[in-house]
Amino acid sequence: MSGTEVEAEVLRRHRGSLGHLILNRPRAINALNQNMVDTLSTTLDAWAHNDDIRTVLLSGSGDRGLCAGGDIVAIYRSVVDGRDDAQRFWASEYALDAAIARYPKPYVALMDGLVLGGGIGLSAHGGVRIVTERTRVGMPEVSIGFFPDVASTYLLARAPGELGTHLALTGGTASGADAIALELADHFVPSERLPALIDALETRAVDDVLGEFAEQPPASEIVTQRDWIDVAYAGDDAVAIVERLAASSEPDAREAAATILRKSPTSVAVTLAALRRSRELPSLEAALDRDYRIASRFTRGTEVVEGIRAQVIDKDRDPHWSPATLSEVTPEAVAQYFI
After folding, report:
1. For this structure, is 141 an active site residue?
2. Model pLDDT for residues 230-248, shown as the tens digit of each residue
3. Which of 66, 140, 157, 283 is deepest in the core (most CB within 10 A)?
4. CA 286 – CA 302 distance, rounded (Å)
5. Known catalytic residue: 172?
6. What is the mean pLDDT of residues 192-211?
7. Is 208 a catalytic residue?
């Protein structure tokens, strides 16, 4: 791939005092590949030392979302072919996420539309996180035999109550208002005002611009469900959690139980363990280091290949998980993912 083609996947614009990065794979909802991660990393490093740039902004091209996560087809091919491309991608992606978290200038992420998987890493670790009425955030990895990486369990473990556990184990999505309630985002701006907000950031400070454009977010639906979520998702036993959900008088709880049972049992058990262990981690960097070990371990198993095959390769939506049930996933097997 030529340098011109690589650059086209991430547009870089410097206007006024604003450095604007635009993920530019709209047909793939701006899914991340290695070249995009490398371009983002080198550009952010250069802009950190450019005195003419006061603010950095990240957005996605097209009208479907900021980023649908990593390019899982590329990950599938890497694992099936026995190459280390996936590990190299995760290493550079996680390093980028850490750089975003400690970026020395205001880093603004427009979390408009879909923000999934790796898109959470590019946005929720930033200093200024803006959502809209179109925002849908989520970590759907349990659906493809993987786990919520990019230190998302580190963030979700710190959400109020067990709201983060609910989102991670079901692989569901949440609204912009929910994202603020989950502490994955900070500000709500109507999508129709984003072009004007971008123009304003070219000449004005971030706090000043937010004071003009940010509005009170709508009510969060997930917060209204916290009573049953906190009860059902307590503890570190995935089987017990599903049993409580299934026995609940709340229809949404019973639906959550059925949803979890369709996911990879190994992924659900590892994700729950990652959430609980995240509460004890000392830093985001520690979480990213741990996630690299877990991600690499998944490439040595069957689940991620089978999950991606069923979802996007053969598209039969009929994954054959191994083990097939949560009760068959042993604590010893889960522990192997954290070594």
Report:
1. yes
2. 999 999 999 999 999 999 9
3. 66
4. 26
5. no
6. 98
7. no
